[in-house]
């Protein structure tokens, strides 16, 4: 059946990422997959195969936490919901119009992986792992040889790119560094024919207002479920 919604894959973004552009980062079965350990703590099931969630067991270690995105399936024994994180899913269809950044924006590489992890883990612990940077392009702003702001790409699906890990060291907020980085990432993607999308906590009204100011529009609400696997 033809789906007229060009963004319909965003209803289950991790599935379409792990079975497409990012399949080299996937482990799992035909119907259940996760990002490799150390890359991203996301797991997913194919739409219509909710019962296959049981086969995740062999891909998780007891005590390991991870996220499921979207509709929560009936959970087999051994899985616990830690919390539900209702998020606003937003997309951007036109380039961000901002004055040029007043400070250099640097593309980050493997040599910066510790700087990247330390900054993101300080501001947004739990969503970014040591090797998450492998999923896409990451850009940063430095001050006095210290990485103080970052933004990058996480899930990628066909011509859709998730903008993620947007954070600024608390000592350097208020300087529009996040705006410069988001604009750079989004415009680079749009010029390449990719539509940027992102997820932001429904309770983070300040961030939502910023994204709307930059041109993002809300597509839907979608929940991230933080889970723990505890062996039966």
From TrEMBL:
Pfam families: FR47. Residues 103-232 form the N-acetyltransferase domain. Transmembrane segments: none annotated. Keywords: Transferase. GO terms for molecular function: acyltransferase activity, transferring groups other than amino-acyl groups. This is GNAT family N-acetyltransferase. It comes from Niastella caeni. The lineage of its organism: Bacteria, Pseudomonadati, Bacteroidota, Chitinophagia, Chitinophagales.
């Amino acid at each position: 059946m033809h789906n007229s919604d060009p963004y319909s894959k965003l209803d289950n973004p991790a599935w379409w990422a792990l079975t497409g552009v990012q399949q080299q980062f996937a482990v799992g079965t035909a119907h259940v997959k996760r990002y490799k350990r150390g890359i991203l703590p996301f797991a997913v099931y194919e739409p219509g195969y909710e019962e296959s969630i049981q086969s995740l067991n062999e891909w998780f270690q007891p005590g390991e936490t991870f996220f499921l995105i979207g509709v929560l399936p009936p959970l087999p024994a051994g899985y616990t919901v830690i919390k539900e994180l209702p998020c606003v899913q937003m997309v951007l269809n036109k380039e961000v119009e901002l004055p040029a950044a007043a400070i250099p924006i640097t593309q980050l590489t493997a040599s910066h992986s510790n700087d990247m992890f330390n900054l993101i883990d300080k501001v947004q612990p739990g969503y970014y792992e040591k090797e998450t940077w492998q999923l896409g392009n990451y850009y940063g702003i430095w001050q006095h040889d210290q990485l103080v702001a970052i933004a990058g790409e996480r899930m990628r699906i066909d011509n859709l790119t998730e903008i993620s890990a947007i954070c600024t060291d608390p000592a350097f907020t208020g300087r529009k560094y996040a705006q410069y980085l988001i604009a750079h990432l989004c415009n680079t993607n749009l010029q390449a024919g990719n539509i940027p999308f992102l997820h932001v906590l429904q309770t983070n009204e300040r961030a939502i207002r910023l994204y709307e100011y930059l041109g993002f529009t809300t597509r839907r609400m979608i929940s991230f479920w933080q889970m723990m696997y505890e062996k039966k």
